[in-house]
Design a protein that fits this description.
single chain; mainly beta; Methylamine Dehydrogenase, Chain H; 7 helices; about 35% strand
């Protein structure tokens, strides 16, 4: 592919622009903040039964029966970039909440209205004005109260959704706005294809940064890579120029402590989200600086300045996506505050028109969202709490809940263009034919009629991963798994979607009992990170573990993505390392 032809206007500007960082030093947090940074400030990492460190071998490969020769597309070769940012950050003044013994202040009647020179009435008034401590995430031990059953202040009780599937509207939107999700797949491009003993992946680039890297994102043209750090910076790398560092984005006007979790490229902008913390206020409950309302900030990639701020979330932003619906522009964001927000934007993608919270009758923490294929973006699935929830984006309402996919959290869900689906469906068809040959009574035939009607319905493939509850000893009560589902669409208005489990993927050494971990797929494999710095590669059709990659030491990996048209697998984790894998040229 000719690079000049695919280079976007923004990429060319960044390449020509001399790299200038508003602040060359990553902020150095307090000791407590460093502790929270090490655990990625979002970890429920727990010890799994039988968990142990793997051997020092970086990869383990097995033969895969579905083998193709690795693509010959040249990619930039091995380089290592080390951050040299060692400057001192802003000094942090931490004030830990310490209960006062008011009784000791009253030495006599004259001192009843003062304490160490302060008016006690004023102090009590200030305490009453403090916001309530935020909902603390469970640590994965013991019994967990489902969010959907919690009532009281700050939590809404269960409310049965009244919205139903609209076949006519869905068909209209699907025809007017066909999907563009899978322009690239392993059958029409040069992305990562087979990963096994015959086609191993090796590390070809390493970029070392400071602080945990919780998310990574590619630009729409695939030429820029953004990394999101808990140390308050976003770095931009040039994918086709040996992953050269092009820019480091930081909001120098921000007076509070900022951490970045996620984001996306949108034209000449980068939209970011994460966590904002009070520099001078400590939360004993969180063992970290007190949480503040968390904004979505949009950076201009050329000027490297913040040009837009969206305020609406009270806590950490976990996911941001852009979507075109019915010819209009929207962002959709999820947060630890339990709300999903739909942001209506002008054509420039920086000017807010309006925003609306998804009405679901409950509060649920959604980690990811993925739009249902062939519905004109009318519906999307959210990985929420321990469930998957189906929403109507147009009406901003919850439609259905597919409960208890995992015992603790379902923190990642993605629709997949499964390239071997025809093989699987043929296997299912043959199995059913064998079953029909043995059927003799009419009742079974009636069931078959219903199944055949369901088989004719539209459907999509959906993959999830999650974390399991732990016992009192901190051991996982169930093995960690990833799951392939079949989402079956209704055929008429008023009916419901159905979510069928197709296959679970597990391995005795696959330990991923931590939340805020994402998986990815190239259509043939699931690439699943672990808390031990590995990426397990599961074949979607056979369920076989065809490879175990390890380039992150023994610390957990947070995100992994596949490049759309180059044979690159990119991962990041709590060690501050961004690792790039590709095929070995020698092979």
């Amino acid at each position: 592919m000719d690079t000049d032809e695919v280079l976007s206007k923004e990429t060319r500007k960044l390449r020509k622009k001399k790299i200038s960082f508003d602040s060359d030093d990553d902020e150095v947090p307090s000791a407590a903040s460093r502790r929270s940074g090490r655990k990625a400030d979002a970890s429920l990492k727990v010890r799994s039964a039988g968990q142990k460190a793997q051997d020092d071998s970086p990869v383990a490969m097995v033969d895969d029966p579905m083998d193709l020769s690795p693509p010959s597309t040249p990619v930039p070769r091995h380089t290592t970039i080390n951050s040299t940012d060692k400057g001192k950050g802003k000094e942090q003044d931490l004030v830990e909440n310490d209960p006062m013994d008011l009784n000791s202040a009253f030495q006599d009647e004259a001192a009843q209205d003062s304490m160490d020179g302060y008016d006690t009435d004023d102090l009590l008034d200030q305490i009453e004005r403090l916001p309530p401590l935020r909902f603390k995430l469970p640590n994965g031990r013991g019994k967990r109260t489902p969010a959907s059953n919690v009532t009281g202040k700050g939590r809404r009780g269960r409310k049965k959704p009244e919205l139903v599937y609209n076949q006519e509207r869905t068909t209209e939107l699907a025809k007017a706005y066909p999907d563009t999700y899978w322009q690239w797949n392993m059958n029409n491009g040069h992305m990562v294809q087979n990963v096994n003993k015959s086609s191993p992946l090796v590390s070809v680039h390493k970029m070392n940064e400071q602080g945990s890297i919780l998310g990574i994102s590619l630009s729409e043209d695939g030429l820029l890579l953004a990394t999101f750090s808990v140390f308050g910076s976003v770095r931009i790398y040039d994918v086709q120029d040996d992953f050269k560092l092009l820019a480091k984005l930081r909001d120098n006007s921000e007076e509070q402590i900022e951490e970045y979790y996620c984001g996306l490229f949108k034209g000449s902008y980068l939209v970011t989200g994460g966590k904002l913390k009070d520099r001078q206020r400590w939360s004993a409950e969180d063992e970290d600086n007190h949480i503040l309302p968390c904004p979505i900030k949009t950076y201009d990639l050329v000027t490297q300045k913040v040009v837009s701020v969206l305020n609406g979330h009270a806590e950490e932003i976990l996911c941001i996506k852009s979507v075109k619906f019915d010819g209009k522009n929207y962002y959709i964001s999820t947060s630890q505050d339990g709300y999903i927000i739909k942001w209506s934007m002008e054509d420039d993608w920086t000017t807010l028109i309006d925003f609306k919270q998804m009405g679901d009758g409950i509060t649920c923490m959604a980690f990811t969202v993925s739009f249902v294929p062939n519905t004109g973006n009318k519906y999307f699935m959210g990985a929420c709490d321990a469930h998957a929830r189906l929403y109507d984006f147009e009406e901003a309402q919850l439609m259905q809940t597919f409960e208890n996919l995992y015992s603790s959290y379902c923190d990642c869900g993605r629709f997949v263009d499964w390239v071997d689906a025809d093989v699987y469906l043929e296997q299912v068809r043959q199995t059913k034919q064998l079953g029909k040959a043995k059927q003799e009574d009419d009742s079974e035939s009636l069931v078959d009629i219903e199944e055949e009607d369901e088989d004719d319905a539209p459907f999509a493939w959906f993959i999830t991963r999650g974390a399991e509850m732990c016992d009192d000893d901190g051991l996982s009560t169930e093995p960690n798994t990833c799951t392939l589902h079949k989402l079956i669409y209704p055929k008429v208005t008023g009916k419901e979607f159905k979510l069928q489990e197709v296959k679970r993927y597990e391995h005795k050494d696959y330990h991923s009992n931590s939340w805020f971990v994402k998986v990815c797929t190239n259509g043939r494999y699931i690439f699943a990170p672990t808390v031990n710095g590995q990426v397990f590669v599961f074949n979607l059709l056979t369920g076989q573990t065809t490879a175990i990659l390890k380039y992150h030491g023994d610390i957990e990996i947070r995100d992994v993505i596949i490049h759309p048209y180059l044979p690159l697998l990119i991962s990041c984790g709590d060690d501050g390392l961004v690792n790039v894998c590709s095929y070995d040229e020698a092979d």
